Amino acid sequence: MYDERTELIHVSIPGSSHDPRDRREPPPGVVFHYVPEFHPDDVTVHRGIPVTSVARTLVDCAEDATPDELRGMFARAYEQGILDLDAVDACLQRIEWRPSLPLVRRVLEEFRGLVEAIEEGPGSGC
Hints:
two-stranded antiparallel sheet
């Protein structure tokens, strides 16, 4: 993930930051994050490069995002047609605990409500 604020590229690498066999020095401008092995649903391939899924990326970005920034990320994903709320929910169920999970759950529920309202449309009420 590219961080516009710091101009750094963040890369998640399966492994432990405490295991010297896993330690690699990142190139300039890159930050490595060592994470447990990814669930197969949390990884996809884009142009031949393995990347985290949209759902996993949203969950990971929440670690450093403000609530408004995370809402913006959800909104952009929705506008691009790549936001799968059920996939985000499934990712949350699989992931280890982290302080940002309540924020992700809150934004997820906000977007569920917004998407339902949009899909119902103005003329679908009683």
